[in-house]
Amino acid sequence: MVQASAPGKCILFGEHAVVYGQPAVAVAIDQRMSVELSLSNDWRIDGMSFHPDRHPHVEALKQRLWDLGPALSIKISGNIPPASGLGSSAALSVAASAALRCARGRQMVDDDWAEGWTAARPGSIYDGPWTSSKGDSVVNGADCVDEDECAILAHAVEAYAQGGRASPLDSSACAHGGCIVLSDKIEDNLNWIYTRSLNGVSWHVHSVDLSNIDDVWLVIGSTGIHAPTSEQVQKVANLIKEQPGKMREIETIGIVSRRGIAALMSGDMESVGRAMSENHLLLRSLGVSCPELEVLISAAAPSSLGVKLTGAGGGGCMIALTRNPKMTSEAIELAGGRTLISKLASDGMKIDNDDKAPLWDPYE
Ligand code: PMV
Questions:
Q1: What are the CA-CA distances from residue 73 to residues 50, 99, 141, 177 (Å)?
Q2: Which of 93, 233, 250, 293 to mutate to test the pocket of ligand 1 (most atoms within 8 A of CB)?
Q3: How far apart are the CA of 88 and the centre of ligand 1, in A?
Q4: Hey, which end of the chain has fewer CB within 10 Å, N or C?
Q5: Cα-only R_g, the chain
Q6: Is any ligand 1 atom within 6 A of the Cβ of residue 314?
Q7: Ligand 1: centre distance to CA 309 (Å)
Q8: Is 168 a pocket residue for ligand 1 (Cβ < 6 Å)?
Q9: pLDDT confidence of 122, banded at 50, 70, 90?
Q10: In the predicted structure, residue 285 carries a pLDDT above the cut 80
Q11: Helix axis angle, 147-161 to 88-104, nearest 10°
Q12: How far apart are CA 304 and CA 322, in angstroms?
């Protein structure tokens, strides 16, 4: 058996404004998706026959990493609620990429990759693997798995499953963990890791080290309402068309996000919280909050450093940055929300079991 897992994410700053080029900040959360692979007589997912149209992400990864490979039984588990803006599909795609790569191994040439997907060789990363001449050795198990490759593959298959549109925010946060900043320019003070391009749009992806922050938590409160992201993005686009002055809100969100990032980097959590609450007021003025979110946000505010909706809005989830997660969580639950508690920035993808790797030798 081969098993890999990856975290979900939530957006701390910059949702919606990122669509117009402003920076957005996402952090990995403690809640994870896990994918387990074992050899089987026929293709199965969670004991049922595998239908590619029901699992487009898995199908797209199978085509890229397991073409002509033997049938697998795939078990998917996890505690990230689906369709709530917490990155469950990106986490699944990252974990499945990691598990499939772990189960097939990687061909090497002169101690370097002979095949794979990497930001170091841009150009064809979404089309097919980069391959060199025939390799001279193979690495198996956890040692052949690479975060960057899983992030690229997850981004490509998210885009495939969503009709060509997906930013790399979720896939990068779920692969690398920690804190990820996306922007339309390389941000001077941040650690730029790579630039992704898809359908003529480019995003510069950065990481921010938050490993020294350990005395604050995120409490995530779900309204239980599903509001599709595309509808909320369209709503903001319509608003800006009718009232061009609303671009001021978008630009101000960018300023608040940059202030939030600086506060994160200096460990000033009070300022991070204030920036989050300010970000929420701007999102509200863009029309993407809703009464149910406002109820949970008001309930969480007294015990929190900052509160805001997270993700597309119109339902979905809110987040509270707090030093008292129990009190904040109880307040949200009393107001009718379901809660999850997470560290501020959690770990990225992991191989949890590679005892039986490889499950296939495509290089023989
Ligand atoms: O809740 P999510 O992860 O779907 O967040 C959407 C973030 C938006 O900025 C609203 C849309 C986008 O593509 O960035």
A1: 9, 12, 18, 27
A2: 233
A3: 13
A4: C
A5: 21
A6: no
A7: 11
A8: no
A9: low
A10: yes
A11: 130
A12: 4
Which atom of ligand 1 sits closest to the CA of residue 15?
9
- Total residues found in the chain within this entry: 364
Q: Which atom of ligand 1 is nearest to the CA of 311?
A: 1
* Residue 127 pLDDT grade (very low, low, confident, very high; cuts 50, 70, 90): low
Tokens of 266: 């200096």
Nearest CA to ligand 1 atom 5: 311
Q: Could you tell me if 166 and 155 are in contact, meaning their C-beta atoms sit under 8 angstroms apart?
A: yes
Which residues have a Cβ under 8 Å from the Cβ of 40 and sit 6 or more positions away? 71, 72, 73
Phi-psi region of 263 (alpha: psi -120 to 50; beta: other; left: phi over 0): alpha
CB of 162 within 6 A of ligand 1: the answer is no
pLDDT of residue 58: 93
Work out the pLDDT band at 115, boundaries 50, 70, 90. Answer: confident
- Work out whether strand 306-310 and strand 317-322 pair parallel, antiparallel, or are unpaired: antiparallel
DSSP-derived letter for residue 347 is B
Q: Tell me, what amino acid is at 40?
A: S
Q: Is 297 in the pocket of ligand 1 (CB under 6 A)?
A: no
Least confident of 99-103, 129-133, 221-225, 241-245: 129-133
Residues whose CB falls within 8 Å of the CB of residue 67, separated by 6 or more in sequence, listed in order? none
Ligand 1 mean position to 10 CA, how many Å?
10
CA distance 26 to 136: 40
Instruction: Please tell me the number of Cα atoms within 13 Å of 95 on its side-chain side.
Output: 29
* pLDDT computed for residue 128 by the predictor: 58
Across 258-268, b (16+ Cβ under 10 Å) vs e yields bbbbebbeeee
